[in-house]
């Protein structure tokens, strides 16, 4: 039975019908949350086992970082773990107190525990806030919540966080984690995440667990589109699936764009068999979305003054079979970096990885999303 609603989810952080190709990440997150429920010392309520290192999730735009968080948030098996999820802790005006929005978020979560609302600890939080001591208010609130039971604090879009607030959060949370409170911390962001954490004096960063995510495998790409279509009662022909995979480029966001376009075409056609003809009919929609994205990504390289560097790195990768050692890439950037390149070669590298033009993992830098790489190469021919 074909449902009325398109099952695919081409949108920010929307949990897809099949979370494809993220088994290792799901396992790590599941284990971490499981450890939060570990045995605790009866008197202090602190965890008996050793503290949990914070987890960093870093990847280019649109590869599913926020989706991992939305997925966790929805799992009934974690219902007993309180999740504080906060994005965009920024300072738009000099008078803003960014921690206020986080505290508000925590209060809202806590209101489910009304019986504690009148407690002394919460009054202390309010007083600190009224005295303009936002850091102290956060410290009290975080300790109070972590003492109540398993707590996951997830911060998304970290590279946009106000540095002073981020430093205060990290300092407090790290102390609580080290003392054995049942608190886990996820730090999420695009490339630039690590640099921003370092700027916030996050000395534990080298001891935290890093998950660097990017494109999904060929098999996962096909599964992400095939499984939901089959669940909707469609039969997907092998050559149709190949045509869809070629459009999706192993890019998680695109599996949803392509899947959604095919599903629409199927609904209109009234057929049950997804064949190459249908995929071709629906291709235009997906392609135009893809071109918009490429246009934006390329525009970003231009706006951020990265065109020159991106071309040098693309040439290097092309002439060396698609991959190079990160040191060679870094040296190339360092050699041609000028005073105008704010943040030096590190920041240039983050800029080139932001949309996945190139990607470094397991000690190798490679060409990134194939269609974006091609698009950027083509622009210089025009
Ligand atoms: N594992 C996956 N399988 C299939 N689709 C996925 C997967 N992960 C994410 N998606 C889809 O990809 C799209 C982008 O996901 P998401 O917004 O989580 O990316 P992001 O990495 O947080 O990007 P940004 O850096 O822009 O915030 C969404 O439409 C989501 O449904
Ligand atoms: Mg996101």
TrEMBL record:
Transmembrane segments: none annotated. This is ATP-binding protein. The keyword DNA-binding does not apply. Residues 57-195 form the ORC1/DEAH AAA+ ATPase domain. Keywords: ATP-binding, Nucleotide-binding. SUPFAM superfamilies: P-loop containing nucleoside triphosphate hydrolases. GO terms for molecular function: ATP binding; ATP hydrolysis activity. InterPro entries: AAA_22, P-loop_NTPase.
């Amino acid at each position: 039975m074909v449902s009325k609603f398109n099952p695919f989810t081409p949108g920010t952080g929307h949990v897809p019908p099949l979370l494809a190709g993220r088994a290792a990440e799901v396992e790590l997150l599941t284990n971490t949350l499981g450890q939060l429920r570990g045995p605790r010392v009866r008197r202090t309520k602190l965890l008996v086992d050793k503290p949990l290192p914070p987890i960093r999730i870093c990847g280019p735009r649109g590869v599913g970082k926020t989706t991992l968080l939305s997925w966790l948030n929805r799992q009934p098996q974690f219902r007993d773990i309180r999740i504080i999820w906060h994005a965009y802790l920024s300072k738009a005006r000099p008078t803003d107190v960014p921690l206020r929005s986080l505290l508000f978020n925590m209060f809202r979560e806590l209101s489910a525990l009304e019986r504690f609302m009148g407690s002394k600890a919460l009054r202390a939080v309010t007083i600190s806030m009224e005295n303009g001591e936002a850091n102290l208010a956060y410290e009290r609130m975080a300790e109070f919540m972590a003492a109540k039971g398993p707590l996951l604090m997830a911060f998304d879009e970290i590279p946009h966080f106000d540095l002073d607030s981020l430093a205060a959060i990290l300092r407090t949370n790290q102390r609580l984690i080290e003392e054995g409170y049942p608190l886990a911390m996820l730090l999420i962001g695009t490339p630039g995440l690590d640099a921003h954490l370092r700027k916030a004096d996050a000395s534990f960063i080298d001891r935290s667990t890093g998950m660097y995510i990017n494109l999904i495998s060929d098999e996962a790409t096909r599964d992400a589109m095939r499984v939901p279509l089959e669940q909707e009662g469609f039969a997907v022909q092998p050559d149709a699936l190949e045509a869809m995979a070629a459009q999706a480029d192993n890019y998680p966001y695109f599996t949803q764009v392509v899947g959604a376009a095919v599903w629409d075409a199927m609904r209109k056609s009234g057929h049950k068999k997804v064949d190459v003809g249908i995929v071709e009919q629906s291709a235009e929609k997906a392609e135009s979305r893809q071109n918009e994205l490429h246009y934006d990504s390329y525009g970003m390289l231009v706006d951020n003054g990265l065109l020159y560097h991106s071309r040098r790195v693309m040439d290097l990768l092309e002439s060396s079979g698609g991959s190079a050692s990160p040191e060679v890439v870094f040296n190339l950037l360092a050699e041609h970096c000028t005073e105008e390149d704010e943040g030096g070669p590190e920041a240039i590298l983050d800029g080139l990885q932001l949309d996945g033009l190139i990607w470094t993992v397991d000690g190798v830098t490679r060409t990134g999303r194939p269609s974006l790489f091609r698009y950027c190469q083509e622009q210089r021919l025009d």
